Amino acid sequence: MDILRFITAGSVDDGKSTLIGRLLYDTKQIYIDQLEAIESSGRVNEDGQVDLSLLTDGLKAEREQGITIDVAYKYFSTPKRKFIIADAPGHVQYTRNMVTGASNSNLSIILVDARKGVQEQTRRHSIISSLLGIPHLVICINKMDLVGFDETVYNQIVEDYKQFAKKLNAKDITFIPISALKGDNVVDRSVLMPWYNGPSLLEHLEQVPVSSDFNLENARFPVQYVIRPHTHEHHDYRGYAGKVISGTYRKGDKVTVLPSGLTSTIKSVELGGKELEEAFAPMSVVLQLEDDVDISRGDVIVKEEENLEVTKEFEALVCWMNNKPLKPGAKLLLRHNSTETRAIVRQIQYKVDVNGLDNILDADQVQLNDICRVQLKTATPLLLDKYEDNRANGGFILVDETSFTTVGAGMVASITHESELNYMI
Amino acid sequence: MDKRYLDYLDQLEAEAIHIMREVAGQFQKPALLFSGGKDSITLVRLAEKAFRPGKFPFPLVHIDTGHNFPEAIQYRDELAERLGEKLIVRHVEDTIKKQNLSEAKGRYASRNGLQTYTLLETIEEFGFDCCIGGARRDEEKARAKERIFSVRDEFGQWDPKRQRPELWNTYNGRIAMGENVRAFPISNWTELDVWNYIKRENIALPNIYYTHERECLVRDGKLMAWSDFIYRDPEEEIVTRKVRFRTVGDMTCTAAVESVAYDVDAVIAEIIESKISERGATRIDDKLSETAMEDRKKGGYF
Questions:
Q1: Do both B67 and B162 map to the same domain?
Q2: Is the pLDDT of residue A408 over 90?
Q3: Where is the Phosphoadenosine phosphosulphate reductase domain (chain B) (predicted)?
Q4: Which residues in chain A are contacts of B4 at CB distance < 8 A?
């Protein structure tokens, strides 16, 4: 059994909450007391059924206003998989919440109302999913019951979407006609759409391959903490605790520590005091090295053979999450895995139109929920990968220096290495 | 399929270890809140995996309401002893005296709410900047929205509107003076995941998690462990039943469930069959209003 993390973004109108409610209800993850709590609140839909959206709207303000403000996490499992749902609001003013939910997802469910077809919101959710590097998109054409389960309606929407999707950097797109309200093709296959031969949504969620979503090629081990017991038994023990965010590590591997560039060999790979043959992403382990090199939190242990370089200058896509606008010259804290450093925004290159994926040039400042491409320079050198090459090592957050709140989510787009800079001088 | 395949429990474990090490790496003075319940016992096992052969970089802290199950207290002391880790216990009783607090009276009297005062007092006494807790998002609808690193103001209050976006596996532990963070490493675990992990890791639990005969007070259809701490209406019945506890909290607000599950496999089978949620079955404190948990969290509770 493994884990699939997926995001559903949307507003109440397009049936998102009903779909989640349906998945939880039909896989028997809703308990009697939770249903009773909803029933006692007296909210029912036009069919007289309980309003399943109340299951996901957890905060008082959300219930009062009937909207989703923040990301809620929901859990269910089948014998094949554990599922973690990031249930995010879909309106443009909540783009940052969707970005948050999307950052950890392997799959994105995008709902299209069969009566309305591909809308601005469909495009925005697809673009954000694609920018955040979500490998699998599922386009659910919902409310098929309201168009008489008509195949031609479905085919037209699929064609329209495919036309739009040419712009996207999406590897895997699946289309499923459903009725979340009636349950068609959600858990069980619909008998009312015999023209559709594909899997139900749940079948697809159970089958979609996720192990290949982990990068096992590029070994990256950011050190989080150094274990030094200082006991008689472990007098000289020095263990580097961290998570293999990508790649694999074995005893005997030749490694380089960055940014210092010192080299050594792995003496052992351990978990909970037991030695392992190999560690691979996303395992949390301890590495011991043969040599007594100076390593502390924020350093990254990589394979010597990759010949990697650190950098202080790079370009990134940033989703801005603060009420105060971002301006060129802004100084911020940047947190990338276990490293924290200061950063300066040297230039705002353009804003991304999340409704159409066009670039808006001459952006002198960036507002809340905007996504932009910027040039950054950091105080200390970082080991970065391009986000599209290695999601686990290409994302970072920006933190306000005085309020300490998280104000931006960044994805590395291109890197200028130190050696290239020297060459240019 | 690739041979490098990580089972879901291993993935959850790896995530929780990573979170604990971020706490150790980002904070000066962290603590692990330990209640003697299965979730905090799971946290302790995860801390062993994260930091052995070293010592934990934080003490275990227990806020004792004085109304805890004796089995849980005994388990707590033995565990700290066996692990050789530091245990700090602070008593709600002392806070009541010191701060001249009023205890609730009547049928629903519980010290659960007063725990918050002692917790905040303890955080101040030791200057803890981060407290690790065993809360899970599947427990309750307000918890479903809480971050893994949850920033609290100097009154310990949770403000859902001020929550920081939390992206990838990057946790922002930067705080201003006086603020502190609650960190929840098992946010993404469900009740069943915890039990499957307890089984896999062969973790011993206080025996009240398994079936035993007990005198119980029947209240609103729930079975409360009968003790001196509980107020009894004359018409309320006391019965002897085979029960176990799904959650172990304060005796005054934790109900038992009828069960014959005598070992971890039987408990897992029972949870899979259960039609009632963990907190719904056992927590009196959540029933007091529709947003009881959200309200308590805003007041500094976990």
A1: yes
A2: yes
A3: 30-255
A4: 211, 216, 248, 278, 280
Query: Nearest-CA residue of chain B relative to A321?
Result: B165
Distance from CA of B17 to the nearest CA of A (A): 6
Residues of B in contact with A245 (CB under 8 A): 169
- Is the CATH number of domain A2-213 3.40.50.300? yes
Lowest-pLDDT range of A101-105, A118-122, A140-144: A118-122
Buried b (16+ CB within 10 A) or exposed e, A78-107: beebbbbbbbbbbbeebbbbbbbbbbbbbb
The number of beta carbons lying within 10 Å of the beta carbon of residue B74 is 13
For B142, which of A3, A59, A81 is closest by C-beta distance? A59
Q: Which residues of B touch A57 (CB under 8 A)?
A: 141
User: Listing from the earlier edge strand, what are the strands of the sheet with A81-89?
Assistant: A72-77, A81-89, A2-10, A107-113, A136-142, A172-177
B97 plus B19 within the same structural domain: yes
**Domain limits for position B254:** 206-288
Distances from the Cα of A415 to the Cα of A217, A316, A319, A421, B264, angstroms: 19, 9, 18, 11, 52
CATH number corresponding to A220-306: 2.40.30.10
pLDDT in tens, A352-361: 887 776 777 7
| Residues in B touching A239 (Cβ below 8 Å) | 53-54
- CB of B53 within 8 Å of a chain A CB? The answer is yes
Span A201-232, pLDDT tens digits: 999 999 999 877 889 999 999 999 999 988 88
B296 touches chain A (CB under 8 A): no
Instruction: Provide the pLDDT for residue B159.
Output: 81
Every domain of chain A with CATH number 2.40.30.10 lies at 220-306, 311-424
How confident is the model at residue B233, as a pLDDT?
A: 77
Q: Are B73 and B185 found together in one domain?
A: yes
Q: What's the gap in Å between the CA of A32 and the closest CA on chain B?
A: 5
For residues B52 and B186, state if they share a domain: yes
Q: Is the pLDDT of residue B218 over 90?
A: no
CA distance A211 to chain B (A): 7
**Residues B171, B40 share a domain:** yes
- The answer as to whether B197 is a domain residue is no
**CATH superfamily ID and name for A311-424:** Translation factors (2.40.30.10)
A338 to B11: CB separation less than 8 angstroms, yes or no: no
Query: Which secondary-structure segment (H or E) carries B175?
Result: none
pLDDT of residue A361: 73
Q: ipTM of this predicted complex?
A: 0.92
Separation in Å, CA of B58 to nearest CA in chain A? 13
Secondary structure (DSSP) of A119-159: -HHHHHHHHHHHHTT-SEEEEEEE-GGGGTT-HHHHHHHHH
Q: Work out the average pLDDT over A244-248.
A: 96
